């Protein structure tokens, strides 16, 4: 596997005896697997300077001749701005805290203004007593 345009360099060399060489720029960032005549190459932790056209080439034995069978694969790596999520999460936690405190204050005000004792005390039944004895009936004016 070769990088061909921006910074021409070798990336991976696999011999017919399955001996492989991963070149230093990709040493910790390249994995490959080989099944018969098929090689699957995976690059990790891509960087902006990895942008290039990658081609697979065959080296003819006992020669420096390279045979390239396709136009290659173009990889364009763009840097992505990383946002600092820790600051925005503190804002969210702060807003949640303010809402909880305001709700608690509102609940306390409502409970203070409403006389809660009268709702939880046992109510005495409204009872009217009438004296229906004979003596009380005799003293009435006719």
From TrEMBL:
Keywords of this entry:
Membrane, Transmembrane, Transmembrane helix
Does Transmembrane appear among the keywords?
yes
A Gene Ontology molecular-function term? signaling receptor activity
Q: Which InterPro entries match?
A: CD7, Ig-like_dom_sf, Ig-like_fold
Q: Which example biological process does GO assign this protein?
A: adaptive immune response
One of the record's GO cellular component terms: membrane
Segments spanning the bilayer are 90-114
Name it. T-cell antigen CD7
- Which organism encodes this protein? Leptosomus discolor
